[in-house]
Design a protein that fits this description.
about 20% helix, EC 3.1.4.-, 4 helices, 10 strands, alpha/beta, Purple Acid Phosphatase, chain A, domain 2, five-stranded mixed sheet, hydrolase activity, about 170 residues
Length: about 170
Amino acid sequence: MRLLLMSDTHLPRRARALPAPLLDEIPRADVVFHAGDWVDTATLDLLESRSRRLVAVYGNNDGPELRSRLPEVAYADLGGLRFAVVHETGPARGREARCAADFPGVDVLVFGHSHIPWDTTAPGGLRLLNPGSPTDRRHQPHCTYLTTTITNGRLTDVALHRLPRRG
């Protein structure tokens, strides 16, 4: 099962559209995750129409219309793994222990907010993944997203993809 993870698209404030390489990945994914800060409903409509399955939440920059359509936390059981998606997890210091306590029984936590790619495993086995942002790199060298595969109940081939800089 192939997964595509993104967050913090901030459209149309940070970019006019999602980058073409990211859009090209959507039909290849069995499940698309978005960890919030959409800003516009058009991006949600686009991902709903192009994704086989979308697991998504709202973020702190998302207004009432997005909040009425999306949960603050989403859960999905996929390929023998329990996923949770949330926008904010708090400061980096202590994140693993805090998230392991906040999300018992979860195998993989997808989150956003910082625009900083993150891939760690908490004591006890919770995998924390932040795909960064495909449209707003902030202080990062590149805009990014993640792909991964579930094989025999395990995450495999976790890959951070760098997007070309906009002109």
